[in-house]
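Entry 12.
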Amino acid sequence: MKTYLFVYSIGPVQSFIAAARKTEDFWSGSYLLSHLTEKTIERALEQKTYNVQLISPSITLEDLQIHKADPSPVASLPNRFLLRLEASSDEEVRQFGDDLTETTKAAFHLLGKRAFYNVFPGLRDNEHMHALIEKQLNGLLEIFWAFEAWDPTTKAYNDVRKTVERRLASVKNNRIYSDEPQDGLVCTVCGMREALHEGNIDEHHRIGQMRRIIEQTWRKRAAKYQEKSEESGSWIKNNERLCAVCLTKRVAREIFYEHHVFESFPSVVDFATENNPYYAIIMMDGDDMGKWINGDDGKLLDGFDKVDERYHKEFSRRLTVFSKEKVPTIVGDKSNENGPPKKGKLVYAGGDDVLAFMKLKDLLPTVKQLRSTFSSDEVLGKKATVSMGIVIAHEKEPLQLVIQTVQQEDNENPL
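Predicted 3D structure (tokens):
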């Protein structure tokens, strides 16, 4: 048996998450990617014949089972993971990678089918819709993985890890793009994929005819998903027509787990007040994380003089402490029993990344505490810094524009 390092990545990330008209879409995009990572890691750790040891993120099979029994509403797993495994040959590792790929795809397709069956119970037998959903779900995911054999007696761990990362980068650069013909109108959320319809549209229909035909399809959604009053909210509004991907995101909170339905994510209105119709979004990530992982420029955890497997496991553990223990307390991710959030609401907290909606009165104290905690001895130490994007927006501002702006600001503002 030989030892291998193996890295696995699921995408797309930012473009997928940013395709949102509602805070619910924004939350579900982040959670969906975390959910797919969870299912894939679970499959990897169950492969006893490979003696899999997860290096990053810091999570065990027991942790996953606990989360499955009592799911957290905060996405906490990154879209990639690194592990060590044992196999007899490169071909066996390829089979391992192929199995994980199928696991990721199957988990995504299961969510897509649940969404379709829930929203359109009367169209379960429509072959065109099944084919369109299959095509759109298959066309979204970008799954890449790479591996490298590692003989600990002749090769340093970090040299092998860097080789694996370079291979993954090369694989990502060698993407295959394909043109997919579309017959109908595009999704009103992402504007990329075709809105679901029953297959009764062809190239001879005018725009107005297409719109009427698609509206007829969307009138057939189950009563639960019909537009309601402004006070009670709405799953899907009458002027919306969604693709399979955005439909899955829109109803995701009720389909991730069969035994559990998440509460609806608060609207931007819940973070504003009667006297101040503005709210904030915070997006934070650690600076120079590649250097911390590689140990470059003196960026090493205290107590370590080199980068090895033990170092990376401790590094992952500390980031887990930050994201799962510290961040929820700082952001105040707890809601009043029958009211809006007290301070803020987390969309994502995993590793060095944080994404949250905040009330303005709590914004600056929260930012300061996030920054100081990341540089505390419990996390990465005083040498660590972060970049943070903060956008203050009016509650009527289109959410997609707000999200795109905060993503841009995050990349330009080290703290």
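Annotation: The mean pLDDT is 89. The CA atoms of residues 21 and 398 lie 7 Å apart.
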